[in-house]
From TrEMBL:
Protein name from the UniProt record: G domain-containing protein
Transmembrane segments: 406-426
Residues covered by region (Disordered): 324-354
Keywords: Membrane, Transmembrane, Transmembrane helix
SUPFAM superfamilies the record matches: P-loop containing nucleoside triphosphate hydrolases
InterPro entries: P-loop_NTPase
Organism: Alectoria fallacina
Chain intervals with Basic and acidic residues compositional bias: 337-347
Amino acid sequence: MGVTGTGKSSFIADCIGKPVDDQMIGHGLRSRKLHTNAPLILAYSTPGTGRVAVYTLKYNDHTVRLIDTPGFDDTSLSDTDVLTAVAQCFHETYSVDIKLSGIIYIHRISDPRMTGNALKNLEMFKKMCGEESLECVVLATTMWDSVAQRLGNAREEELVSEPLFWGSMKLLGSMVERLSGDKGTEARHNSAMNIVQKIVLKKKKIVLDIQREMVDDHKPLAETSAGQELDKGLREAKLKHQKELKSIQDSMKKADAKTRSLLEDHEKHYQEKLTRLDKDQEILNMSIAEMYKQKEEQLREIIQMKKDQEHQAQQLEARIKRRESELESQYHNQKQAFEKERSEMKASTKAQQEKILQQDANMAKKLQKLENEHAQELRELRAQAQMSQLNNAPASGSAGGALGSFILPMVMVAMIAGGMGGLGGLGS
Ligand SMILES: Nc1nc2c(ncn2[C@@H]2O[C@H](COP(=O)(O)OP(=O)(O)O)[C@@H](O)[C@H]2O)c(=O)[nH]1
Ligand SMILES: [Mg+2]
């Protein structure tokens, strides 16, 4: 435990040897193992408020559970949120007979002085523990690397000698230790485990005052000693803010328009603070049962929200599926129509091609026939000419040959001049 930013989560990381990851923290009273070698984590949390997480590690033959808590004096959480989350964790564990072995309260040695808030929180811590548990409390200091050794020693001395600080706790048995070594080193791990060992070696189980009051005496948080301490602070803060608000409102009555608008901002600021304090007091006055009821309602709202989101997602998915099947059938129909058109076109092209080939073959046949006839006619003509040449040729000698070749043109001329009839006479 301790104020925010003192190094509580880092201390746990030093012990387990790996960073404490918020993402690894589960919600509610469930536990889950995230991946092998990861610490088993239990978490108690109130949505929108503080989160308490439990990390498990093995130490010699012991199973050590380290509970990380949100710190008091946080910028985003009110001390009421923090006390509520921590109290719920203590209530739940003690209700099922899980007892604490000790508490490590962490403080920055680099802090120049104990502020009013730090002192108030320390007072609340003491009330939460009760005197009997103090012998199992380790008051540990961090950030020794951020302070000169002599200055650190002097501050530690002041802490343990001043009864209002750690003095009275030390007298009642609380141990004072330093967390030394550089971040991530073996020395740092050993120093952190040395603090854990102080508690393990005590071999004690403690019941905090706040646990006894809430579980055994059924008191609402506001009626426990720690709750009353916090309530005292809330009431003081409320009175202070009410006074400030009244003084602002008085000034507004006399102010000109420009100043009034400035004061209005201040008025709003204090009104918001007072509303928050009222809410804190309301939470503090709830019984633990009411707190659980509220937590349950918040969880139910979250579950309903998740269900609505799931329903919307399902509807969207169904719409997408419908559209998909529409598109699929549209595509299918269009594809079929195109394929039909294509095969019809192919068939008609084939018929045309066949027709053209047939026509071409016919033409070729006709041409062949013509060529044959022509060749036949030529052959016949040549045969006739040869025949006529033979008939008119002299019996022998070269003179006859020369005459033959002379006579044929003459015959042709005679054929043209005398017409076919003359030819017939000549040929016969
Ligand atoms: N210099 C220095 N920084 C530290 C030391 N211990 C923790 N821190 C740093 O202090 C910051 C707050 O630590 P964290 O563990 O988140 O504090 P928590 O709010 O108490 O849990 C982180 O940036 C840590 O790295 C320390 O011994 N020395
Ligand atoms: Mg932390």
